Amino acid sequence: MDGGHFKLSDVENSLIKPDLTIYLQLPLAQRKQRIEGRHESQNSAEDNLTLTNQADNVLNQLYENNRHADIAGQWLVVDTSDSIETIMVTLLDNISSLLGNQILKELK
Fold first, then answer.
1. Within-domain flag for 48
2. Residues 6 or more apart whose Cβ sits within 8 Å of residue 38
3. What is the pTM of this model?
């Protein structure tokens, strides 16, 4: 445990490995806009700590470092600044591809 948070390595073996991990990435400027647009009571202290360039870089690097962990499965980064339609097409195309690959593996 690191401070008040578990390290991935502490819980990794007790989790079920997913076929796909989807990282919904929102650019800092848009995240700021969303967080600042909510009522104060809707934001956690952690939300407010993510609003600097340094914190944004650290968070993105943490996710990037963990994408190769055994527990991540296939990794998909989705830019959530795109339209809902574009996001859905990206998700559906990748899920379809993943399912197709799994079916091919099972047939072999």
1. yes
2. none
3. 0.67
